[in-house]
Amino acid sequence: MERRRQKEGEEEKGKEEKFRSDAMDSEDSEMMDTETAASGTNQNDVVKDLISLARQLINQGKPSQALQAVVMAMRTKGGDEAIFQSLHRARELYRNRLQANAAADQLACLFAECAIAEVQPCNAEPSPHDVVSPSIAPDSNETSILAETGRKQIVLDAFSDGSSFICLQCGGLVSNHRKDEHYAYWCCKI
């Protein structure tokens, strides 16, 4: 009988412990839910603070640090995957804009060449040290360093605004202010 009481007592203890355990689990899960909600709110506050910091850094002229703050905000909200997606999208936009700019530059270059060719006089007789006047277009078959590096528009702009000339000897783009020095020291064809 004593054994039976011990057994019943042990069963009671087991039930009490199970009840306490269930109650503790319930309290723990409620606390976890509360913490999750609190951390979600805290997480949103952190993201807002980081974005505000990024704006301040942009206004202070610190774009790299602003980018770091934005990346931290993205990581806080969406993890590394969000960062990779955003960077991938930014790269696509940059490439598309770069291609559009290249096409626009080529079109502008063609318009500039046409405009310069329209103004070109028919009876121009260059002397040995003559310079190309702003109304004469540079030879598009000649290759200059700027043209070779894809910056032919710079040559056309400088030429068309009259601030520079193209040396007929070497084909170089030279500032009008340095004409004498160019012929005296720099022209490789004289």
From TrEMBL:
It comes from the Eukaryota. Residues 1-23 have a biased composition (Basic and acidic residues). Residues 143-188 form the C2HC zinc finger plants domain. InterPro entries: Znf-C2HC_3. Residues 1-39 are annotated as: Disordered. Residues 24-33 have a biased composition (Acidic residues). This is C2HC zinc finger plants domain-containing protein.
